[in-house]
Amino acid sequence: METLAYGIIIDFIPAIATGAAALAAYYSYCGLETWRKELKGKKKFDVAEETLVLVYQARRAISYMRSPLGFSGEGSTRDQNQNEANDEKEIWDSAYVPHERFNKNKETFSKLDVMKYRFEVLFGKELTPPFDAINEAVNRVLMDVNRLGRLMIEEKNTVR
Predict the structure, then answer these.
(1) Model's pTM, two decimal places?
(2) pLDDT score recorded for residue 59
(3) Is the backbone of residue 47 left (phi > 0), alpha (psi -120 to 50) or beta?
(4) pLDDT in tens, 123-148
(5) Contact assessment for residue 125 and residue 117, using Cβ atoms and an 8 Å cutoff
(6) Which residues of 86-96 are buried (b: 16+ CB within 10 A; e: fewer)?
(7) What stretches pass through the bilayer (predicted)?
(8) What's the rounded mean pLDDT across residues 50-74?
(9) How much is the pLDDT for 6?
């Protein structure tokens, strides 16, 4: 009788080993899935955090571009037209100040533009319109100062 019980136990050892291996594989899979979800969540968090930092930097840069306060020498990096009078040079230099300020912050806007696509991959295209709004704001500032410079010169020439 004892040998019969011993024989049955021996017969079940492969089944027990297989069951233990299956159970270990299941728990390994569950652990791997949890790790994968955590990794994806961490990646989303990192991209969101980096995006927020860039948005704050872009907001500060746009405010700086729009600031009416200027410093002496700002706008002087502009390529001057040879036919410009001195008063026209001052107007065009003043109008060029936001362009210089944009150029100082160009890297921030470039990084934000790249971040838009990383953000889109992780969060979806429906959450990317604010990136376009930032680009539109920058373009509007730069176009408006050019328009203002032209209007000021036209007004100056009309008054003469």
Answers:
(1) 0.72
(2) 95
(3) alpha
(4) 999 999 999 999 999 999 999 988 98
(5) no
(6) eebeebbbbbb
(7) 6-27
(8) 89
(9) 61
**Residue 51 burial class via C-beta count within 10 angstroms: exposed 0-12, middle 13-18, buried 19 and up:** buried
Sequence-separated (6 or more) residues with CB below 8 Å from residue 95: 75, 145, 146, 148, 149, 152
Q: How far apart are the first and last CA of the chain?
A: 124
**Helices (H), ranges, the chain:** 2-66, 86-104, 106-123, 129-159
Q: Would you tell me the crossing angle of helices 2-66 and 106-123 to the nearest 10 degrees?
A: 140
The predicted pLDDT at position 134 comes to: 94
Integer Cα distance of 144 and 150 in angstroms: 10
The rounded distance, in Å, linking the Cα atoms of 80 and 120 is 41
